[in-house]
Amino acid sequence: MYLRTTTRRAGDGTVVRYVQLAHNRRVNGVTQAQVLVNLGREEHLDLDGLRRLVASIRRWTGDDEPTGSPSPQGAADRPQADGAFGALRVVDVRPLGAVWLLDGLWKALGVDVALAAGADARRWTSDAERVAFACAAVRAVEPDAATSLHEWVRRCVLVPGLESVTPGEIPAVAALVAATDLDLRLGAICPGRPRPPAALEAFRSTADRVAFGTRVVAWLAASLVATVEHRTGLPWVVVRGDLARIAAVALTGPHGSMTAVSEPTPAQRDLFEACGVGAPPRVLDVTLI
After folding, report:
1. Each residue's pLDDT tens digit, 44-102
2. What gap in Å lies between CA 92 and CA 251, rounded to an integer?
3. Angle between the 266-274 and 236-243 helix axes, to the nearest 10 degrees?
4. Are 97 and 265 in contact (CB under 8 A)?
5. 59, 18, 56, 63: which is closest to 40 by C-alpha?
6. Treating both helix axes as pointing N-terminal to C-terminal, what angle do 111-118 and 169-179 enclose, rounded to 10 degrees?
7. Contact partners, residue 216, CB within 8 Å, separation at least 6
8. For residue 148, which of 165, 127, 163 has the smallest C-alpha distance?
């Protein structure tokens, strides 16, 4: 696991450097770099946030640096156990901030309660309400995503409470959304919200129900985005880009595993506060063995 930089020449001829978190993997016997997170342009990199994340991980492992850190050359010569963070090894890094914000608003609207009440747990391998949220979140966070929802949830972001999506569940979730009364508190939460899709007087087939449920999911995604823009006074693309730098880092070691979260900057905390959503905790979960 390492940081690497790539360069790109802009239209005006200047060279722009981008920073990525990557690791090497072998594909057909050849070592290739796999990018885990794009951290953005080098000049916009939140160095203090990265330092705080490293310091937090070191405190958790009891591997704090002594006062008066050694020189970079000394650090390079010092042996390290089990990866860059002492006894812990980074196994996954995914963006979290934008999804966390949308999830907080989703719950404020009461969508989670309404969908959970209408879902039959015996029919689902995943949580139906969580899958419905993922369907809405991907439309807001990555509207042009080329990957499937299954791959997006499994590899691209961290959706709280959801580890995977079975492709066959998505039409059933859309049908569930269509059958759920979502007369929510949008008037108070999202002034100037997008208009809801016109309800079908009668569903002539399951396909009609699925199509209507898909339109409702798109409307919910647009409503969440409109809420963010109304409360922050900023375009969603700006908020989304800023919060994308908050990452969830999965670590494992000889005594268990944990998921740590990079500490939000003051500006990022202001975005959460403006939307009435609490910032993510520094540690999402810990499993000891």
Report:
1. 777 777 777 777 777 766 666 544 444 444 433 433 334 333 467 788 889 999 999 99
2. 7
3. 130
4. no
5. 18
6. 110
7. 177, 178, 182, 196, 197
8. 165
Distance CA 173, CA 136 (A): 11
Amino acid at 138: V
Phi, psi of 202 (to 5 degrees): -150, 140
The one-letter amino acid at 172: A
* Alpha carbon distance 174, 140 (integer Å): 17
Q: Give strand pairing partners of 41.
A: 18
Edge-first strand order for the sheet with 283-288 is: 89-95, 247-253, 256-261, 283-288
Torsion of CA 52, 5, 242, 89, to 10 degrees: -40
Question: What is the DSSP secondary-structure string of 137-181?
Answer: HHHHH-TT--S-HHHIIIII--BTTBS---TTHHHHHHHHHHHS-
Question: What are the pLDDT digits (tens) for 90-104?
Answer: 888 899 999 999 999
Structure-token pair, residue 245: 């730098």
Non-local CB neighbours of 190 within 8 Å, separated by 6+ positions:
223, 226, 227, 230
Flag whether the pTM goes above 0.70: no
**CA 22/CA 274 separation, integer angstroms:** 33
CB-CB neighbours of 57 under 10 Å: 20
To the nearest whole percent, how much of the chain has pLDDT over 90?
Answer: 22
